[in-house]
Prior knowledge:
The protein has 149 residues and is mainly β. It contains no helices and 14 strands. The chain has strands at residues 27-28, 35-37, 40-41, 47-48, 51-54, 60-62, 67-73, 81-86, 91-101, 108-109, 114-118, 128-135, 138-140, 146-147. The strands form 3 sheets. Strands 2, 5, 6, 7, 8, 9, 10, 11, 12 and 13 form a 10-stranded antiparallel beta sheet that branches. Strands 1-14 form a two-stranded parallel ribbon. A two-stranded antiparallel ribbon has the order 3-4. A hairpin with a 2-residue loop joins strand 12 (128-135) and strand 13. The termini are far apart. The relative contact order is 0.26.
Amino acid sequence: xxxxxxxxxxxxxAVMPEPRPxxxxxxxxxxxxxxxxxxxxxxxxxxxxxxxxxxxxxAFVRASENGVVVYAGAELKGxxxxxxxxxxxxxxxxxxxxxxLLVGKGDRVDRGQAIARVGATxxxxxxxxxxxxxxxxxxxxxxxxLVEG
Length: 149
């Protein structure tokens, strides 16, 4: 039997484009919803390197700032469909548990652009977005950097 066709497959770019300069001050909230798990130590003795935001399944997830997609896939255990977006000045944003990814590795994204749809993939039971901000690889509490769009 032949393998199932790959939908929207594209060759990876030979050279990753550089992110465009930031479009605004701070980072936009990637989705509207209630905070279900804050940044930091959780009650389970674990650490949340980001925040989890409850949202409706299928709601658009928006890029928090101009950047370039450096990862789009589901290989990281527990995160489901995950996007990593590189921004200028050493920043990276992560968007996990998506139902559908609307962009691929190497794509330039604009602040506020729809990049995924909320889902419940990975280790979550209800639709939500796990969102992380890292600066020079170090996790930063997103709530200290997020601004309304």
